[in-house]
Amino acid sequence: MISNDSKFELSQFAGQDELDIKRGEARTEAADRQDRPGQLRLLVVFDALLREGSVAKAAAGLGLQSPAVSRMLGQLREIYGDPLFTRTGKGLVPTPFAEGLRLRLRALAAETEQLMAAPREGAAPAMPVENDDWARPPLISAPPLAVRPSLLLQGQPTPDDFARKLARIGHNSEPQRRLAKYIATSGSGIGRCRPLALDEAEDALGIILAGEADPVQIGALLATMQYRGVAAAEMAGFVKALRRHVGAYDVADGRADLDWPAYLSPKLKSPPWFLHAARLVAMAGYRVLLHGHYGQGPDAGKLELAAETAGIPVCGSLGAARDALAARSIAYLPIGGASTQIQRLFALYNLVEMRLPVHAVAHLLNPLGAAASFLGVAMPSRRDLLRDTAMLLGIGHLSILGSNRDFAEATPFRTTTLFRLVDGEAADMRIAARETIAAAPPPPAYTSREYWNAVWTGAARDEAAEAIILETAAIALVTIPAFPGKTLDAARAEAASLWRGRLR
Hints:
Elements: H1 4-34, H2 36-52, H3 55-62, H4 66-80, E1 85-88, E2 91-94, H5 96-100, H6 102-116, H7 159-164, H8 175-187, H9 198-209, H10 215-228, H11 232-246, E3 258-263, H12 273-283, E4 288-293, H13 302-309, H14 318-328, E5 330-334, H15 335-338, H16 340-346, H17 349-352, H18 357-361, E6 372-377, H19 380-392, E7 398-402, E8 416-422, E9 425-426, E10 429-431, H20 448-457, H21 463-479, H22 488-500
Parallel strand pairs: 3-4, 3-6, 4-5, 6-7
Antiparallel strand pairs: 1-2, 7-8, 8-9, 8-10
């Protein structure tokens, strides 16, 4: 038996334990209140990891060091009791638990960004815009993507039903059924699928461009192909569909000498030095068509503004670009001017946060049928793929600049491989790195755009920027089959001469 004295002592201990627990809970709550800024920081890092799928990319986007982001990922895993991400060959893949938090974290991060960008006067928060003087709405805004009404999900045939009927779906079947066949052919799973043939890929994208596809089908086809990896025949079929859709000219028409695609990521904030290089090539007497896109953000019209500042005609249609090229030897065609439907497909990036095959094939659009094309490709595996695609299309002259950008602008201070086609045959060129020149910071009195223009006019001197411009112009010149010098050294000498006489 327990004596009364023992019971009294136990009750005292129990009371003390309860008091200690309450004090501990109070301390924990106080610590949580004090660390709320740190918790918000962890959530912002969590959102960046979900968007980027990489510790290094998330750190770069947030302006942090990779070890710091790795440490915060460890804290998040401890807080949630979940691994949150698994490491694969394609980066970090979120666990089902982490995926379930994606939309809430994105909403929190977006609201935080808008609140921090709100003016002090109390006006409605606006999206942040960098004060670099490039802000400009695009010439052509993309309306909603043209699609057929979505299938009623209940009672409609399942993908398995479609797959079983593939053999009965011929080339004369209605567009929606043909596209269903291509989706089943391309994405039925390991051992039951294959890449589309060139004519199948051409028909599939043609259906989408004509506005005859169901929106579910568009996402299924493009996302499946992107995940599996696009084959050269599929790329070639897509290019043919794009060219037919915009009414592109053939090389035999002789409308242009150099096609120069410029599809830039809106995350890129550096000045478009390559436009000055294109001006030099046009000054040499070659007709240069630039076509491109700069995302959907507040400075979506950056390339158009830069072209106007440089005196390059900005064209709202293929016909206008043809006429401008005949009159001025250079023109810029926004992708919306070639086709608003293609521009709408580009805008799907905002819904899926990844590049789709249409982003890659637009580089080979060549709407005016130039004799040669000058591309920049950041992803190493895509360089050979695009060249193989060009060979399937019978393209004779092509240069793909292996750089860290998806547009053709040289990086002369590091060794670069130029992936080429000369008369339809592969002919790579290794370009040695030049001695590094330190980039000159823009004077405080200049905005980014003003400084970019001042380098051309001579009001500002930047040897590093000039080296980029001249090397880019030289590679563009040696790409053109009509250039008499043929060698890169001859092209460099020509570019330097053009640069010295540019203001005349």
